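I'd like us to work through together how a protein chain folds, taking it slowly. To get us started, please write out a protein record for me. Label the sequence line and the structure token line clearly, so we can match residues to local backbone shapes. Once you have written the record down, we can walk along the chain together.
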Amino acid sequence: MNRLVGSIAVAVAIFLGSVSASRAATDPNVLCHKTVVKQLEKYKKTHLKLYRNCLDKQNAGTIPGPCLDAVSAAKLGLTNQKVTAAIAKKCTMVTLTAVGYRTDCQYGPATAGIGGTCFNLPVTSPTEFAECMKCWKGAEFARFEATLYASHATEVCGTLDDTSPTCAAVGCTTPLPNQRDLGTSGENDCQKMIAKAGMNYLLKRERFLEQCLLKGGTRGTCLADPKLQLKLATAETQKQTLIQKKCGNRDPVANPPFCCKQGTGNSCVLAADRATCTTGGGTVQEGKMCDPGTLKCVNAPGGNTVTWWDSCPIAAPCPGPTPGTLSGLIGCVDDTADQLVDKLLCLQFPNGGACPTPSPAVPTPTPTSTP
């Protein structure tokens, strides 16, 4: 008898669960929200991939730049249209409001740059809503791309503060890494893997958390899930392994040493920068330096390097801790990606507890009046 009762209870639970799942699958609010998350993921993948491919080719001299080139820009435009159309097909302003989205585009401060552009966008239709989301998210993607490609940060963003027309403020950017094409070199191989591994880690971390949040979890419960923790740890290990494989013992340096070779043998001249060297008829040799006593190119002290930030861009107050070593560089990629994922999830899950809990402010003591 007890077994029969238990079997009935299990059957009822399964039935109720299937009914709940069926209702969720047909709920217009749920369908709309899932569509928004899925389509914005497509936009993110395309954005990151196109910029990565373009900047890699530019570094190698295959295309002249700047990025995006015309072909890549056209591909991003096509994806942009498809994403907007898909969201407009599954969502209405009623369902978007029910999910918790704003009826304006004021998801951040109206800065002088891209923030002000996004802030002032109208949101009177699902199509306009989609453009609003892509504006804020695109600014964060561009910031991440500029961070990973430190030697092309100004190309991606223009300016690196709140006045940038394309990027959210990058953060601590002084000293600015040397802005140049890296060429077909070991340094460029390292740069390519930093970008590839960093972007893959970002995509995996956000996708894992999106899946959990869509099931009703919060940021806290999702990050506490042992299965999700294992997935995130695996993604972290993969990123570290890939970067270390291609970068070896390279240390991050904002302005790596070079020698301006000119004349016969190892003769060189002292040049202030690479542009001065090449315009003066010299040839830049990376990883070397011009000995001021002998005026000969010699190996630079410190070994191999990769052009990177002396201060991790998210560090505050500026200047923050310097990465210093390859491990520090990997940690900077982690911090930048994790911060970006938090912002994107907070944007996409307005009622899902996706936003990090703000630290409580320390109350200001009330002064005691003197009799």
